[in-house]
Amino acid sequence: MGKSWGLLISMLVVLTLVINSFEVKMASAKLSERACKEERRIGVNACKPILYGNIPSPKCCERIRLTHIECVCSVITPKLAALIDIKRAVRIVEGCGRRVPRNYKCGSITTPP
């Protein structure tokens, strides 16, 4: 995985975990790995401009709200977490109109207190 792709997926992961941790979706069945992989792919494509310093588009914010938290937590390794500017991620999420839960752990990331 290239560094820029890794950074983008990690940013999407942080944005998704922060939003979805506050609005946990209860599903009767666990999503398949294939479905999760597709959610991540769509989200990465929708949110690419964030990687270049742009604000999230309405499409990106929508994608962040729709992606299931269980699809992203499993891919947050310490190596991926090291690429994330968590303060920037929090600003982006709040820019999408969502409250950011504090001290939330997902994979190798914990949101600030």
UniProtKB/TrEMBL annotation:
Keywords annotated in UniProt: Signal
Domain Bifunctional inhibitor/plant lipid transfer protein/seed storage helical residues, every copy: 23-106
Keyword Signal: yes
Annotated signal sequence range: 1-21
InterPro entries in the cross-refs: Bifun_inhib/LTP/seed_sf, Bifunc_inhib/LTP/seed_store
SUPFAM superfamilies named among the record's database cross-references: Bifunctional inhibitor/lipid-transfer protein/seed storage 2S albumin
Gene3D superfamilies assigned to the protein according to its UniProt record, in alphabetical order: Plant lipid-transfer and hydrophobic proteins
PANTHER family hit by this protein: BIFUNCTIONAL INHIBITOR/LIPID-TRANSFER PROTEIN/SEED STORAGE 2S ALBUMIN SUPERFAMILY PROTEIN, BIFUNCTIONAL INHIBITOR_PLANT LIPID TRANSFER PROTEIN_SEED STORAGE HELICAL DOMAIN-CONTAINING PROTEIN
Entry protein name: Bifunctional inhibitor/plant lipid transfer protein/seed storage helical domain-containing protein
